[in-house]
Task: structure prediction
Amino acid sequence: VAKSFSIRLRLTLATPNLLAVPPISTRALILHGFPYGETSRILRLLTFDHGLRSVVAKGAQRPRNRFGGILEPFTEGEAHFNLREGRELFTLTEFSLLRSRQAIGRDLGGFAAASLIAELALRFATEEPFPQLYAAAATAFDQLCDSTRSAAPSGLRSIWIIIGLLGYLPEMRACVRCGRDLPPDESSRFDAEAGGAACRGCRPTGRLISGTFRSEILDMASGNPNAPLWNPSNRTIHSALLQTFLATHLTSDRPLRSLPLFMEQLKS
Ligand SMILES: [Zn+2]
Result:
């Protein structure tokens, strides 16, 4: 107690105007962390109340520090920092652990899925609060943590939920070109550029996708936890479609670093 008090006191003395802004407290998911200077760590947080924010945890790289080595990706906690307008980096004064989720690292498929989810949130979240995205990411991390079998299949479902929340759901009920409804027993093709399924008349060549496959995508993106898990025999086409769709609509300028690992895990 004495040690943490003395650190806080020194911090306050060094920056007296901190006193003017009361610290805020919000639930936060650590999406990314990297060393800063000799002893500190910068964290990219998806917060419940203030969207995506960057904080510096001073002293967090020291062997014995007041954060206690818990500032790792996928961890959730109550973050305290001074939110001063016009700033881009805030000083983290306290981070109380809610859930560590370090078990995600035990399964490579789960780790790859969680990394991809974190990367999507880093790429698309803003400083505006987005409670649904926060909840979806936290739920996904929980499921990947608790998964006893290979976590990649449930990871795929979470990734589609996130893509849906970001507003990029592919059209799977009707042909994206002619608008005709696609009955469940009719196979179609996929037109990534146009953003969804295309009937065989409109797109004469390419791999066929079944109505079952189209509904698997819709079921996953609906976020319904009771939706059946997708058929593993479709894993090759699932990974191909996700990759093409992401590359065309979300990440054409800059590929996602964790995507190749997730693709590999999904197909294995
Ligand atoms: Zn058509």
In short: Residues 175, 177-178, 180, 198-199, 201-202 surround zinc ion (CB under 6 Å). The chain is about 35% helix and 20% strand.
